[in-house]
Amino acid sequence: MSRGHGENGDFLALDLGGTNFRVLLINLNGQEVTMESKIYIIPQHIMLGSGDQLFDHIADCIFKFMCDHHLHEKQLPLGFTFSFPCRQCFTSIKTSIRQFMRQSGSPSKDEITKSKLYPI
């Protein structure tokens, strides 16, 4: 994020790691940045379960965070990152994400490509 170029307001950031899911509320106000975050553990049965179970858990965590921060009535832009160890080259990152999504029973590449994506 390049501060000072008109980015102001509240934003959500989501970080999905191997065992934890983190939700952050970031407020940009000119040169001032504030952040609040909460880390949610991903239970073993969800890590080993279906993609539906994983993304239902993620949705529940986001809902709890938004309620705790009185954001449930707001629509906020958000960024979502998958933090998995991989070599730092584009091919490896694509492979790691696809492998994770296959293991979790998530949608295929074609299904994702056809879905409506919104830029941040």
UniProtKB/TrEMBL annotation:
Belongs to the hexokinase family. Pfam families: Hexokinase_1. Keywords: ATP-binding, Glycolysis, Kinase, Nucleotide-binding, Transferase. GO terms for molecular function: ATP binding; D-glucose binding; fructokinase activity; glucokinase activity. InterPro entries: ATPase_NBD, Hexokinase, Hexokinase_N. Its EC number is 2.7.1.-. It comes from Elysia marginata. Residues 7-88 form the Hexokinase N-terminal domain. Pathway: Carbohydrate metabolism; hexose metabolism; Carbohydrate degradation; glycolysis; D-glyceraldehyde 3-phosphate and glycerone phosphate from D-glucose: step 1/4. PROSITE patterns: HEXOKINASE_2 (PS51748). GO terms for biological process: glucose metabolic process; glycolytic process; intracellular glucose homeostasis. The keyword Metal-binding does not apply. It catalyses: D-fructose + ATP = D-fructose 6-phosphate + ADP + H(+); D-glucose + ATP = D-glucose 6-phosphate + ADP + H(+); a D-hexose + ATP = a D-hexose 6-phosphate + ADP + H(+). PANTHER family: HEXOKINASE (PTHR19443), HEXOKINASE TYPE 1-RELATED (PTHR19443:SF16). SUPFAM superfamilies: Actin-like ATPase domain. One of its GO terms (cellular component) is cytosol. This is Phosphotransferase. The keyword Nuclease does not apply.
